[in-house]
Please model this.
Amino acid sequence: MMIMANDQVEVFNNTIEQNHTTGLAIVSYMITGLPIKDEKYDAFCESIHIHDNRFVSNGGVPGGNFGALLGALVGTPLPDILYDGVANPAKLVDGKLPDELALRIHDNDGARFANFDGSNLPAPGAAAGKAPKVQRDLKPHAGSLPALGPVSIEGLK
Model:
């Protein structure tokens, strides 16, 4: 599962298992390295709540160049939950997102986690810059967000 450049997402009561690279990736659009052509586009994830899921056997065979890069950075198997840690700098308060915009993760049956510091990953073909600082501690993401209402799409049940 991937959450990319989305706001107000709640992932709960799932079994996420046997995925080669990771069970859940939470990333900004910035990780693609592609230009943003629409100045109104919000490339960042905000108000993401991950809770009460079960993660099993994820990350054992990371795929592609990005999987290989992450494997070298955080080790394999890759964690069940990977976060790029990239936030909109205009919304930071004292270096972090306000509580209502933050990533919150709890009660996920021992899921392994890593913030791989995506803002410091080298761009393809670029010289190495500042080394990414991998963080595995979930404490900065402790807590919860208010439950979101159900989504209904007309014509689907």
User: Anything to note?
Assistant: Residues 54 and 151 are 22 Å apart (CA to CA). Residues 2-141 form one domain. The mean pLDDT is 93. Residues 64-74 form the longest helix (11 residues).
